[in-house]
Write a structure and sequence with these properties.
The protein has 87 residues and is mostly beta strands. It has one domain. 5% of the residues lie in helices and 64% in strands. It has one helix and five strands. The chain has a five-stranded antiparallel sheet, with no helix packed on it. Strand 4 and strand 5 form a beta hairpin.
């Protein structure tokens, strides 16, 4: 996370990011909702934010996400999706 904060007036603007989230690690949370298993891959997500005192909520802007080295197999153990890293 990086950004700027001012106290008068109260305001903040910056970027929040998560990098290299291991998708397989979170299978217990999404496993029942999909018909495949993820055997590898990472997820990077980021979003800008802007907050001004007195305004409700913190709107996100410039959101983005990237998958890297995604590998998944059907529950029948047949590989059906592979997205390798780009050089």
């Amino acid at each position: 996370m990086k950004g700027n904060l001012t106290l008068s007036p109260l305001a903040s603007e910056g970027t929040v990011a998560l990098a290299k989230v291991l998708l397989k690690k979170y299978a217990p949370y999404y496993g029942d909702a999909v018909r495949f298993d993820i055997n590898g891959g990472t997820l990077d997500v980021r979003s800008g934010y802007r907050f001004t005192g007195g305004r409700a909520g913190i709107p996100a802007h410039r959101p983005g996400a990237a998958l890297s080295d995604l590998r998944s197999v059907s529950r029948k153990r047949e590989e059906f999706l592979k997205i390798p890293d780009s050089p």
